[in-house]
Amino acid sequence: SQKIEQNSEALNIQEGKTATLTCNYTNYSPAYLQWYRQDPGRGPVFLLLIRENEKEKRKERLKVTFDTTLKQSLFHITASQPADSATYLCALRRDTGGFKTIFGAGTRLFVKA
Amino acid sequence: KAGVTQTPRYLIKTRGQQVTLSCSPISGHRSVSWYQQTPGQGLQFLFEYFSETQRNKGNFPGRFSGRQFSNSRSEMNVSTLELGDSALYLCASSLEVLGGGYTFGSGTRLTVV
After folding, report:
1. With contacts defined as CB-CB under 8 Å, which chain A residues touch B56?
2. Which residues contact B11 (CB under 8 A, 6 or more apart)?
């Protein structure tokens, strides 16, 4: 069955450093991959989308890479700030064979001042 | 513009009862998806609707059902509630264009006692 794995343990980093989160998947060939941020008690907020034919996408301090051979995406937050502390979710979608977006369990990020 | 609106925000029900949750998507969004989120399981896909048609359904028992109306508003229903149905139920809408992700509502927190 389709499976998405994200770092199950929380990631603790110092303010100003780069946070790198990992998303690995199996038994799936997504057309695109998305990253979301979720704060406690709130719905996820869309951050970035990267297509299967793209290697890298950037938005301000965020960078996403997508390696369809390794079946892995890396999500980077540069110059991290305490306000970046949240849970980050990756999600995969392919519209053929059924319309469904599947989510990873998320990685909690703590940025210390 | 108004975001995705879910009602009610909180709900307490007794085992065996049924519940209906409502979701109003962003104006112009015709795709609506529902997810169940629990601490141990993350976001689990329930259904996806587009123009009143259910395009896909997740691996949930038949007690979980949904529908979408002509104005894109959606409802989901859970009959014969069980304690394990306690969760945050999230609705998300999208414009169905590549490059954009879901916009989630704040969710309905359902507690079954």
Report:
1. 98-100
2. B19, B21, B108, B109, B110, B111
pLDDT attached to residue A63: 97
- Give the pLDDT band of residue A34 (cuts 50, 70, 90): very high
Instruction: Judge: B43–A103 Cβ closer than 8 Å, yes or no.
Output: yes
**pLDDT, mean of each 10-residue run, chain B (113 residues):** 91 98 94 92 91 92 97 97 97 77 94 97
Contact A99 B99 (CB under 8 A): no
Closest CA to A103 of A51, A57, A37: A37
Q: Does A102 touch chain B (CB under 8 A)?
A: yes
Q: Tell me: pLDDT of A65 over 90.
A: yes
Of A90, A108, A64, the residue nearest A4 (C-alpha): A90
What are the beta bridge partners of residue B47? B34, B57
In contact, B13 and B113? CB cutoff 8 Å: yes
Mean pLDDT of chain A: 91
